[in-house]
Amino acid sequence: MKKFINPPRNNWKKLIARPIISSQEIKSVLEEIFQTVKKNGDMALKKYTKKFDQVNLGDIFVKHKEITNSKNLISNRLKEAINIAKLNIEVFHKAQKIKPINVTTSIGVNCWQEKRPIEKIGLYIPGGTAPLFSTILMLAIPAKIAGCKEIVLCTPPNREGKIPPVVLYTANLCGITKIYKVGGIQAIAALTFGTETIPRVYKIFGPGNQYVTAAKQFATFHNVAIDMPAGPSELLIAADDSAIPSYIASDLLSQAEHGPDSQVILVTTNLDLIDFVIDEIKKQINLLPRREIMKQAIANSRMIYFDSNQNAVEFINAYAPEHYMICMKNEEYYLREIENAGSVFIGNYSPESAGDYASGTNHILPTNGYAKQYSGLNIDSFLKQMSFQKISVKGIKNIGPAIEVMASAEGLDAHKNAVSLRLNDLKNE
Amino acid sequence: MKKFINPPRNNWKKLIARPIISSQEIKSVLEEIFQTVKKNGDMALKKYTKKFDQVNLGDIFVKHKEITNSKNLISNRLKEAINIAKLNIEVFHKAQKIKPINVTTSIGVNCWQEKRPIEKIGLYIPGGTAPLFSTILMLAIPAKIAGCKEIVLCTPPNREGKIPPVVLYTANLCGITKIYKVGGIQAIAALTFGTETIPRVYKIFGPGNQYVTAAKQFATFHNVAIDMPAGPSELLIAADDSAIPSYIASDLLSQAEHGPDSQVILVTTNLDLIDFVIDEIKKQINLLPRREIMKQAIANSRMIYFDSNQNAVEFINAYAPEHYMICMKNEEYYLREIENAGSVFIGNYSPESAGDYASGTNHILPTNGYAKQYSGLNIDSFLKQMSFQKISVKGIKNIGPAIEVMASAEGLDAHKNAVSLRLNDLKNE
User: Fold this and answer.
1) Whole-number Å distance between alpha carbons of B120 and B193
2) Is there a contact between A92 and B103 if contact means CB atoms under 8 Å apart?
């Protein structure tokens, strides 16, 4: 844990820096895998799954029976919990659906904006030590609400060539039945180009390790969109003496258990709080299973004291945290002034875990300072906006002359001509 | 002009293909220019401006006097036209601003979503034969409505080292006064890293040639977001015998004058219309100044007859046009069924020129089939969505147990612990 007291501004650049992820050495691997999957399709997927996941894949597609059978392998308690989370996520994301916007900009000129779903999308769910079924809720629920027609899911198989039942159960509960046992760069390549089994999609969503992240960025050069670039997860807590040190410690630790490169930052206007929190971390950490991971992340954590609220908030905006927790007496100030954050947690009873699972907000959020320019996942991520205009005779007579003058000034006479022809026909109307 | 009658589906892939843009050879140039601008700042900008624009730049920054003086160099007619366009664009984009969304997802769990402006943005305006002041309206007006704090504009100087007065006038009218005489890859690199003169921004907007487009995509690897990948402009018209052939021809020609690689497509359910339109194109084209450019684009144009509305619409959705014009008796069907299009123009008096300049819709739109997954520019392009949650004691008691179960099932015990600690404290409340 590193402590800083009123760090001067010229030191902030270092304090807001994230761990550097080098994607240079991944590049040549990317090109090779993308080209091979494009050329050899399913055969390439099996080859790379054997190479990277040490699994001989039979079927790439998860069979219907395996999906429906998954419900028998999950406890009722877990099913109930997933259901509570699902309902809350649905309520929050349904509220984000807005009606078309329709205005008459000038007499006779009717313009409107409608959002329509992206037809084909791909969801990526990482494998690894734990089955991240909560991420399926965060991706599939808004996709369904948006009305995406074709939703496919890729996730790497475990050593037995299987997908964890809770992943299958959650996907099925959300109405996703096209599930493929492919992970890593090869999964992203398959979603980009399509193979005999996996359909090509228009946009790819979901978190992943640095290989998956680099592959998603690479895919954007091949006519595919992605949700956002992803990096290691982060939490910044702004707290004063109204905060409860054991809670703050538990929240910092919950962030730290994601990985050794997780970022954990405490900003406080109460100098004593730093030591209280450090004591609590020491108490709690040894009771938790992932302590070795947490210790590495906590070692790099930053505890920063500012004697002014303004400096504190300016630092927070410069950092642009993925998760931002406010436990401050004057929470209104910290809320009003925040410009860059993914998801905000307010008060002592709003732990980050709540947003990760069940409050209803989305847990796929911009990391690495991207909260400065990217939104967290929301219903709009699955829609695209289209604009419409219907101009009447009166309308074109009204705005036509302005169009002629502007087109002419831009040297685009055919643009002008398209209006002049119409205005000429309407001279006597 | 190429005619196709009921083309079979296996032929569609060819018919929806765009001209291929190779970005391979640009890559090494990109890396060099980005690295040099990062290292040498303004000095590098001057070096590349001399090399690519053949101009010895004195000041990079356009002086205040030059900006305010521009209003004396523009005709009143043009000023009035720009003003009409500005008002319409403002009405349409202001209507897109929505209030925060606030819901109680479960008892005691309050979640909301707010959109806040991206603080620092860069606008790119291409140079070239004509001053594209209309694009400034399309970028600067929504940026101002969104509330972006720092808006800077880069545009290449002409051979005299100057920016056209109408560009300066329009920028100033929209409240943009940080204008830099830099174009091409070096401008994008400057906006990405910042130099002594040009501030670094979080998101870069605006069209450009293939070098600028490649540079924008390259910038996304350096913590900058971009509006969208851009390609040559396109128009697809769906028309039947209710369309007026001379209007259709004029609209196809207006699209064709953008460049030899512009895409121009007519989809019709009336076979005769094709020849009527071809005759009209032949009549009109020779009267227009940019006929040599248009002839090349028209030579590659496609005139496609379908005997069913359903096939026609499915083809249009497969093509995903940037601009989509509907001159059909059953326009309702073509409107309802369109899934992928940037901006839609309905009826005989809604030429594409109207949307390019003055109807109020935005003219920065997804090309190259990207209408399948990208929105045209709109107010949301300048905002990012943040989510908030405030959970009460009652709220955490309500959803806490579900969070514990889910965190535990994902093997994230520190996540669980953050909730358990709180629930334990609240046992007797």
Assistant:
1) 13
2) yes
Distance between B77 CA and the closest CA of chain A, angstroms: 7
For the ranges A125-129, A246-250, B53-57, the lowest mean pLDDT is seen at A125-129
- The pLDDT value recorded for residue A25 is 72
Q: Indicate if B323 belongs to the active site.
A: yes
Can you tell me the distance from the alpha carbon of B268 to that of B40, in angstroms, rounded to the nearest whole number?
55
A347 and chain B: CB distance < 8 Å anywhere? yes
CA-CA distance, A58 to A77, in Å (whole number)? 33
Annotated active-site residue A323? The verdict is yes
Contact B84 A106 (CB under 8 A): yes
CB A82 within 8 A of CB B406: yes
- A334/A329 Cα distance (integer angstroms): 10
- Give B102→chain A minimum CA distance, Å: 8
From chain A, the residues in CB contact with B415 under 8 A are 254, 257, 352-353, 356-357
Cα A22 to chain centroid, rounded: 21
Please tell me the pTM assigned to this model.
Answer: 0.96
Q: Is B295 on the interface with A (CB under 8 A)?
A: no
Rounded to 5 degrees, φ, ψ at B330 are -95, 60
Amino acid (one-letter) located at B205: F
Give the pLDDT band (50/70/90) at residue B37: very high
- Angle (nearest 5°) at CA A104 between A100 and A106: 150
Contacts of A25 (CB under 8 A, 6+ apart): none
DSSP notation for A222-284? GT-EES----S-EEEEEE-TTS-HHHHHHHHHHHHTT-TT-EEEEEES-HHHHHHHHHHHHHH
Q: How far apart are the first and last CA of chain A?
A: 79
pLDDT in tens, B227-243: 998 888 999 999 999 99
Q: With a CB-CB cutoff of 8 Å, which residues 74-113 of chain B face chain A?
A: 77-78, 80-82, 84-85, 87-89, 91-92, 95-96, 98, 101, 103, 105-106, 109, 111, 113
* Closest C-alpha among A406, A420, A417, A413 to residue B137: A406
Q: Which domains does chain A have, with CATH numbers?
A: 23-104+114-228 (3.40.50.1980), 232-375 (3.40.50.1980), 392-428 (1.20.5.1300)
Note whether B403 contacts A: Cβ–Cβ < 8 A: yes
B24 pLDDT above the threshold of 70:
no
Catalytic residue among B322, B352, B363, B404: B322
3-state secondary structure of A302: strand
pLDDT at residue A20 greater than cutoff 80: no
Inspect the interface and report whether the beta carbons of B388 and A251 lie closer than 8 Å: no
pLDDT digits (tens, 9 = 90+) for B45-68: 999 999 999 999 889 999 999 999
How many other β-carbons are positioned within 10 Å of the β-carbon of residue B173? 19
Cβ-contact B137, B172 below 8 angstroms = no
pLDDT tens-place string over residues A38-71: 999 999 999 999 999 999 988 999 999 999 999 9
Can you tell me the distance from the alpha carbon of B214 to that of B206, in angstroms, rounded to the nearest whole number?
13
Q: Which of residues 194-223 of A touch B (CB under 8 A)?
A: 202-203, 217, 220-221, 223
Q: Does A242 touch chain B (CB under 8 A)?
A: no
The Cα of A166 is separated from the nearest Cα of chain B by a number of Å equal to 9
Instruction: Tell whether B192 is within 8 A of chain A (Cβ).
Output: no
The DSSP line for A215-230 is HHHHHGGGT-EES---
Whether residue A348 contacts residue A337, with contact meaning beta carbons closer than 8 Å, is answered with no
CB-side exposure of A27: number of CA atoms within 13 Å? 6
Euclidean distance between CA atoms B417 and B171, whole angstroms:
55
Q: How many CB pairs under 8 A join A and B?
A: 418
Residue that is written with structure tokens 């847990």 in the block = A363
